[in-house]
Amino acid sequence: MKAVRVLLAATGVGLGLWGLRLLLETLSPEALVRLPLWLGGAVLADDILLVPLTIGAGWLLTRWSTGPGRHRTIDAVRTTALYVGVTTLVAIPLLLRQGKGVNPTVLPRDYLRDWLLLEATIIAAGVIVAVVQSRRATFSSSRAASGDIGGR
User: Fold this and answer.
1) Considering the entire predicted model, what is its pTM?
2) What is the DSSP string of 66-96?
3) How many angstroms separate the CA atoms of 1 and 145, rounded?
4) CA 4 to CA 133: how far, in whole Å?
5) Count of H helices and E strands in the chain?
6) How far is CA 14 from CA 7, 44, 58, in A?
């Protein structure tokens, strides 16, 4: 077992050093200076902007879901928020890079419009599921209140 761990560690270190060599060969000295600045800016943007927004949205969602009867639709809201977040994270590089670079034909599409349409579709599907779930719950509770259970 120890030999497997040593082999995996050596493979990981070797691949890391190979990647570092490729990075140093392909980037210019100016880019090597800008890279840590960009990475530091990404960390700051994540810690100052994205994390507080995510925590705030989760707190608001939790407060909203504690209301009477709202626990039935919380899964649809959470799933919708998850899909919106994931597709936004995937789309950010395309949105930031759009129309820039040496070859403008590489990214010829209107990614902002396409991303907004995708997000609108995800939100519309989430709203439809939430409405169907809330109506189904209302229908079940009205049948239970009328005593029409069990085919009587």
Assistant:
1) 0.56
2) TSTTGGGTHHHHHHHHHHHHHHHHHHHHHHH
3) 63
4) 51
5) 5, 0
6) 10, 30, 41
Q: What angle do CA 73, 76, 80 make, to 5 degrees?
A: 145
Two structure tokens written together for 117 = 């349409």
Angle, nearest 10°, between helix axes 74-97 and 51-65?
A: 160
Tell me how far apart the alpha carbons of residues 140 and 129 are, in angstroms, rounded to a whole number: 16
CA atoms within 13 A on the CB side of 143: 11
pLDDT value for 7: 96
**Residues 6 or more apart in contact with residue 95 via CB below 8 angstroms:** 111, 112, 115
Distance CA 48, CA 51 (A): 7
pLDDT by position in tens, the chain (length 152): 899 999 999 999 999 999 999 988 988 888 888 888 888 888 888 788 888 888 888 788 778 777 776 666 788 888 898 899 889 888 887 777 765 555 566 666 778 899 999 999 999 999 999 888 878 766 655 555 555 555 55
Token pair 């009205």: residue: 142
DSSP at 150: T
